[in-house]
Target: Class I SAM-dependent methyltransferase
Amino acid sequence: MASRHRTAPVLPAIRKAAHELGDRRAAAGSGWIARMVGADSRRLDPLLGEVDRLRPYLREIHRRHLEGGRTGYAQFRAPFELYALVRFLRPRHIIETGVSSGVSSAHFLLGIRRNRTGRLHSIDRPIEQRSARFGPADSP
Model:
């Protein structure tokens, strides 16, 4: 009997997308998403595979991070899973607390755009940036 939560066969697309984003640690897998939403991972794998289409956006996010002096984007390294969750669940509203550099926000919005429905509500405290580029003490 096959497992409902198998490893996603979309690893090449994920690997390329993670490279474009500038973080090899952003390796997505459908298993934990499937367990969280109670779905078969085979329904989520194609949604994770869509990240290949996001590569131009990911390249731009990475470029802007480097331009602004950021070498990373967050401690939560699951932007592709967030995209897949939005695509799968098709929420009318997403409430995000803590925006940091906007990587999660971008993936929420890309999922909403692809779904053609939904709204993102983001809440964060303002950050006082001391110079044009983030220094080690500036990065949230």
Remarks:
- The first strand starts at residue 93 and ends at 97.
